[in-house]
Amino acid sequence: MNAYLLSKTVGSAWQTLPPVIQRHYAVQEGQGSSLVGVMTIAYPHFMLPLIGLISCFGGLVFRRGSNVHTRVEKTADTEGVLHWHRTLRFPDGKTAHFRSQMTYQTEHELIETIRYGFGIRLRAEAEDGRLVYRSQGHCWQGAGLRITLPDWLLLGTATISEQALSADNFRLDFTIRHPWWGETYSYRGDFRYAKTEVESKGMKPLPIA
Questions:
Q1: What pLDDT, on a 0 to 100 scale, did the predictor assign at position 28?
Q2: 21 vs 59, 135, 156, 175, CA distance in Å?
Q3: What is the CATH classification number for the domain harbouring 155?
Q4: Does residue 198 register a pLDDT over 50?
Q5: Domain DUF4166, which positions (predicted)?
Q6: Among 71-85, 138-152, 184-198, which is the least confidently predicted range?
Q7: Does pTM top 0.90 for this prediction?
Q8: 200 belongs to a structural domain
Q9: How far is CA 168 from CA 6, 27, 70, 86, 128, in A?
Q10: What is the dihedral angle through the alpha carbons of 179, 42, 61, 7, rounded to the nearest 10 degrees?
């Protein structure tokens, strides 16, 4: 199992998470898994310029919508890095993609990286049967350096919650809240494991670019 990432990150609390949440991250080296769900994406109009800029670096989807059919594919590489590829299909048939990588840092902390070395530091914990991430600042990594920016300089603090609904379904809530501007971005939806879930060896990690 992918002890290199989530079980290692949350420690002994991993055992308190429901099986449907554990399965979401129990991706072995060279293997993958798929989820499908329907989401709603929302953000206020005055956030358009900043969200547009962030989307240029591969972070956040620059489009609002409801009934957004979403597929999430994950693969793990030999270093224990979890690669994500999210495909979102809007009601008008247009699609958007969001790719990232999750890398272990220390106990309860990982970094999710997008393009050009930009990423977000996340603290991961198990709380009352839910897996909860909270952002601990944004960062840029390159040339052996890491520069950290406080959340309030951008959209605010992100909170991500995954809560089991059944043995095969869970609810995802991703919300960013700024101390001055309130809720600046969110996407929420229910997910289940795809019937065509790929769990065979030889599946290559998905690139960010």
A1: 78
A2: 24, 20, 26, 19
A3: 2.40.128.20
A4: no
A5: 17-191
A6: 184-198
A7: no
A8: no
A9: 19, 16, 16, 19, 18
A10: 70
Pairing of strands 118-127, 157-164: unpaired
**What's the confidence (pLDDT) of residue 33?**
84
Which of 27, 132, 121 has its CA nearest to residue 74?
27
Strands 95-106 and 82-89 come out as antiparallel
Q: Is residue 198 part of a domain?
A: no
Q: Coil, strand, or helix at residue 84?
A: strand
Token duo for residue 183: 């809720």
Average pLDDT, the chain: 89
Number of domains the chain contains: 1
Domain membership of residue 142 as a residue range: 3-193
Q: Measuring CA to CA, how many Å separate 101 from each of 4, 43, 66, 113, 169? A: 13, 24, 26, 5, 23
Distance CA 100, CA 158 (A): 16
Would you state the pLDDT for residue 208?
Answer: 42
Looking at the domain assignment, is residue 72 inside a domain?
yes
Residue 85 lies in a domain: yes
